[in-house]
Design brief:
Strand order of the largest sheet: 5-6-10-8-9
Helix content: 25-40%
Bound molecules: flavin-adenine dinucleotide
Strand content: 15-25%
Number of strands: 20
Radius of gyration: 24 Å
Structural class: alpha+beta
Number of helices: 17
């Protein structure tokens, strides 16, 4: 690996900037040796060891807002591109590596203060370096009765995850991490610092209580973008529920998904349940929290491999033969025992409208769970961060040559018809590109009102395999766009490809992003290229 220089910047200019960063931060917080900079490589990069791999030139680690202001001013004077990260654990979507090679990573891990946790408001105010583990420990040590909504790996940060619009698995109000934020502080490219929402009102005590403040609500501008460096963010937390209950609905007919999704949507939108619904097929046994699908039996594998996909009648006959359902939905409830028991009862009543459907009552658990009880469960649904996901997927799963993965994550409409169409499209794509997708694949329900599919494209150490997978990924982006499905988030290597598909009115959205970029960061020093937003000097170069 060799360190890259920023485009148009000489080694001398970079060295001069690094010396200025050293004066602002102290020598020990400026990293430029090959060994140190290698730590900011994306371990899951689909471009690994190729000339296009995104590599940093150096990294710097401020510890205060004033230091962040000082470094952006230095970068602005010398036109040095910076790439802010919080904890830099964005594996699957770009890791800690910059979107533009040669950028200096602005590593905010040292800014790891938990500024406030309020039990009565169920909220927290944190700096970028605060990880889910840090905040969990803080809450646990003080015995506060609030829960986090961690993503599967708990080592990342609340701020980095929310800014990339990540998701978790507890109650619906908290699963969309950007939506669950309340107020932020941002250092702009010229070193100015602003607070959003009620934070703009000096002496306000409701910064983490009222999101929108007064005037245009600008918070969204700072997620999946490159318009500022976020130095504080507030989050709403979930009050610790009294109990948890799950229940499963099993369906036997192919067509049942249509009424099922409509009823499920109504029940969720009417707040009859708040936990994340796990959709699956009993034939694959994949609707348990944190479970991977069972490998299909040889007979089922043959059926699923039918050219053009198995016919509904074939699937139904197979289900009858093995005595299993075809589709299932596992519902999860949080709240007082009396309430959640009544909610599940009501769900069963509504789903009984689907002929032949059957129900399984799941366990009712009183909170908090003991350490032993947690040990046996998928802990993120109980607000407890962990790293167990890496035993299921990622670098530990090496027998296949897979070193990691990147996420392909299209949003599709939340109705049964869209699931059938997606199953068909993805089965065809799987055949063409040799991906391990089953015709029974079901979408995920992280967010209300839309489904998301998440497929993991393997990343290997073999350059040729990675090239083939990149080509497949890009084709799939286009196939999805032709169906009106767009990705909600994508690895750095594909951000231009995905932005290209959001093309209404001759790319009016991208053109607007570019106008904003030119206005708030005219020298283009912040995260150039992130989410397909390039500063003017690099757009001109590309044209
Ligand atoms: C096996 C596996 C499972 C995963 N499961 C999930 C999951 O369940 N849910 C999920 O959401 N993700 C998941 N991920 C993806 C990823 O690991 C997490 O989202 C992780 O929390 C992101 O890392 P981070 O918090 O350190 O963010 P960072 O890497 O710090 O930030 C992400 C990006 O946001 C921008 N950014 C960060 N901080 C700032 C700032 N302060 N100012 C301006 N811009 C900033 C940067 O461009 C940065 O590259 C998974 C990954 C793997 C490998």
């Amino acid at each position: 690996m060799s360190i890259r220089l920023p485009p148009g910047i000489s080694q001398n200019t970079l060295d001069g900037a690094l010396r200025a960063f050293e004066s602002a931060l102290g020598k020990e917080w400026v990293f430029s040796s090959e060994e140190d900079v290698a730590l900011y490589r994306d371990a899951y990069s689909p471009l690994r060891d190729e000339p296009e791999e995104r590599l940093a030139s150096a990294a710097i680690a401020p510890s205060t807002v004033e230091e962040v202001q000082a470094v952006v001013r230095i970068a602005n004077e010398r036109r040095i591109p910076l790439y802010p990260i919080s904890t830099g654990r964005n594996l699957g979507y770009g890791g800690a590596a910059p979107a533009l090679s040669g950028s200096v990573v602005l590593d905010l891990k040292r800014m790891n203060r938990i500024l406030d946790v309020s039990e009565s408001n169920a909220s927290a105010l944190v700096e970028p370096g605060v990880s889910y583990f840090d905040l969990y420990r803080h809450i646990h040590e003080r015995g506060l009765k609030v829960w986090l909504d961690p993503p599967d790996p708990g080592w990342g940060s609340l701020i980095g995850n929310a800014l990339d619009r990540g998701g978790g698995q507890t109650a619906v109000q908290y699963r969309n991490h950007f939506d669950a934020h309340c107020g932020m502080e941002v250092v702009l490219a010229d070193g100015d610092v602003l607070r959003t929402g009620m934070g703009a009102l000096p002496n306000s005590e409701s910064w983490q209580q009222f999101k929108t403040g007064f005037g245009p609500w600008v918070d969204g501008m700072f997620s999946q973008s490159n318009f500022g460096v976020v130095t504080k963010m507030g989050f709403w937390l979930m009050p610790q529920p009294e109990a948890y209950l799950s229940g499963r609905v099993v369906m036997y007919k192919h067509a049942d998904l249509i009424p099922f999704v409509d009823i499920m949507n109504y029940l969720e939108n009417a707040s009859v349940f708040s936990g994340m619904t796990l959709l699956g097929s009993p034939l694959l046994g994949n609707d348990l929290p944190g479970a991977l699908p069972d490998p299909p039996t040889p007979e089922l594998a043959e059926l699923l491999a039918t050219p053009g996909g198995p016919q509904p009648a074939q699937l139904e006959a197979y289900c009858k033969k093995v005595g299993k359902g075809l589709w299932s939905g596992r519902f999860q409830f949080y709240g007082p025992r009396e309430v959640i028991e009544a909610q599940w009862k009501y769900c069963k009543k509504r789903f009984s409208a689907i002929e032949g459907v059957s129900f399984e009552d799941g366990e009712l658990l009183e909170m908090p769970l003991s350490a032993q009880e947690l040990e046996r469960r998928h802990t993120v649904i109980f607000g407890v961060p962990n790293l167990r996901i890496f035993t299921l997927m990622g670098r530990t799963e090496n027998s296949t040559g897979m070193e990691g993965h990147v996420g392909f994550s299209p949003i599709i409409p939340r109705n049964g018809k869209a699931i059938y169409e997606a199953q068909k499209v993805f089965t065809e794509a799987a055949r063409e590109f040799g991906l391990p997708l089953s015709p029974l694949n079901m979408p995920l329900t992280y967010w209300q009102r839309a489904f998301v599919y998440i497929f993991l494209f393997p990343v290997t150490r073999d350059v040729e395999t990675n090239r083939r997978n990149r080509e497949a990924f890009r084709k799939l982006v286009k196939i999805c766009a032709d169906h009106g499905w767009g990705e909600y988030r994508t690895p750095v290597a594909y951000q231009d490809d995905v932005m290209e598909t959001y093309s209404f009115n001759n790319h009016a959205l991208r053109r607007f992003h570019e106008r904003l970029k030119d206005a708030v960061d005219p020298n283009g020093i912040l995260s150039a290229g992130r989410y397909g937003i390039w500063p003017r000097y690099l757009r001109e170069k590309k044209a």
